[in-house]
Design brief:
Blueprint (H helix, E strand, L loop, with lengths): L1 E5 L13 E4 L5 E6 L7 E9 L7 E5 L7
Antiparallel strand pairs: 1-2, 1-5, 2-3, 3-4
Length: 69
């Protein structure tokens, strides 16, 4: 798993927020996220959620995350 910060610049009037995600290595699923990149607001999902990364950009913060507690 990886920890990736979304850095997409959205081209719309509605301010689409970016978050920091705990993702699969292929960036196809998310296991949890930090709302608005805030380390105090982490949400872990019961099951991984598929994510469409087309037209989105991510900076990988950490790789090879093995254990989540």
């Amino acid at each position: 798993m990886i920890l990736a910060k979304e850095v997409t610049v959205w081209d719309c009037e509605v301010g689409q927020p970016n978050h920091t995600y705990l993702m699969s290595d292929t960036k196809s699923k998310i296991y949890g996220y930090f709302k608005f990149h805030n380390p105090k607001e982490f949400t872990m999902f019961k099951k991984p959620i598929r994510i469409d990364t087309r037209y989105r950009k991510f900076d990988v913060i950490q790789k090879n995350i093995k254990d989540i507690e």
